[in-house]
Amino acid sequence: MTDQTSDLALAVERPSHQRRPKTEFMVYFAIIFLATLPLACLTWALSAIQRGGLPERGPVARAWSQARIITPMIFAA
Questions:
Q1: Domain residue extents for the chain
Q2: pTM of the predicted structure, to 2 decimals
Q3: Cα gap 4→50, rounded to integer Å
Q4: What confidence tier does 54 reach under pLDDT thresholds 50, 70, 90?
């Protein structure tokens, strides 16, 4: 009698790091990115005025990192 409980073809799955981002996640990410961009521009400008020079990270990088932090929090809830 054969053991049919361990079918290797069914056990092979794509690793989680190769999955394509879901459309819903990308839509939320874009909305949050666009919402955080004005505030990131403001804080970047204030930081540039206070320090007397340009900060290392620009406003787009700041907004991008905020969107990368906030979006997974929404999907984890």
A1: 21-76
A2: 0.67
A3: 69
A4: confident
